[in-house]
Write a structure and sequence with these properties.
By secondary structure, the protein is α/β, with parallel strands linked by helices. It contains eight helices and nine strands. The chain has two domains: 109 residues, Rossmann fold (3-Layer(aba) Sandwich); 96 residues, Winged helix-like DNA-binding domain superfamily/Winged helix DNA-binding domain (Arc Repressor Mutant, subunit A). A hairpin with a 2-residue loop joins strand 4 and strand 5. The protein is elongated. The C terminus is likely disordered.
Length: 225
């Protein structure tokens, strides 16, 4: 979220976090450029009129250097010409202020699904089906009543499957840059998720490596927990 109006940025970021998204905030174009070089993002919600580096210039930087990042330009400029010029800069979508927050959420989710590395809408593994758009998850046809963070952790693991995700990976993808790297929140959340997924166990932990969802190839492999 790149927005120089701090109150708006913080409110929107907190709302997106409540929807299960990991969100970092930058209040100017320079800070945003630094974050983009350090972290891998799926979507950038970008205000157009920014200090430091103008939003138009930052949009060009993103589209030229970060092929996998989708840009939602967020601005008070609402004329058709403004929208055309914003999209001409390489933005993938354009939303004018004031906006309805549910619409912003839907647009961010839509851009994430269009992102080059995104997979199919419904994620499947080991009897689990997860639909990120409708926020639904089942195992062997049984509805899973998951919290926002449990759902986000399961989605991250399914997207990475069959690879492992480390604790640091999950903190980055499900929480945000301010998450305490020494916290046990990932362990606690995965523990709750395991209980809700039920038997037989489907999330494997390998000490020093991380977590992954077991697949068909693992059915006859023992060990792990």
């Amino acid at each position: 979220m790149v927005e120089d109006a701090r109150t708006l940025a913080d409110v929107v970021a907190e709302g997106l976090r409540d929807q299960g998204m990991a969100v970092d905030v930058a209040h100017d174009g320079l800070d945003a450029a630094v974050k983009l070089d350090v972290n891998a993002y799926d979507v950038v919600v970008l205000d157009r009129d920014l200090p430091g580096i103008h939003g138009d210039a930052l949009c060009r930087i993103i589209t030229e250097r970060h092929e996998r990042v989708m840009v939602l330009m967020l601005t008070a400029a609402a004329s058709p010409g403004d929208r055309v010029s914003g999209l001409g800069l390489g933005a993938d979508d354009y939303l004018t202020k004031p906006f309805h927050f549910p619409e912003l959420v839907l647009r961010v989710r839509s851009l994430a699904r269009r992102q080059p590395s995104a997979r199919s809408r419904t994620l499947r593994a080991a009897g689990i089906e997860l639909d990120p758009l409708r926020r639904l998850a089942t195992r062997d046809g049984r509805h899973l009543d998951l919290s926002v963070k449990e759902f986000a952790v399961l989605e991250a693991l399914l997207r990475a499957s069959p690879a492992f995700l480390s604790t640091e990976d999950l903190l980055e993808q499900v929480w945000d840059e301010n998450a305490d790297p020494f916290t046990n929140t990932v362990t606690v959340t995965v523990g709750r998720l395991r209980r809700k997924l039920g038997e037989p166990p489907v999330v494997r932990t390998t000490p020093g490596v991380g977590y992954r969802v077991l697949g068909a190839a693992d059915e006859n492999v023992g060990g792990g927990r």
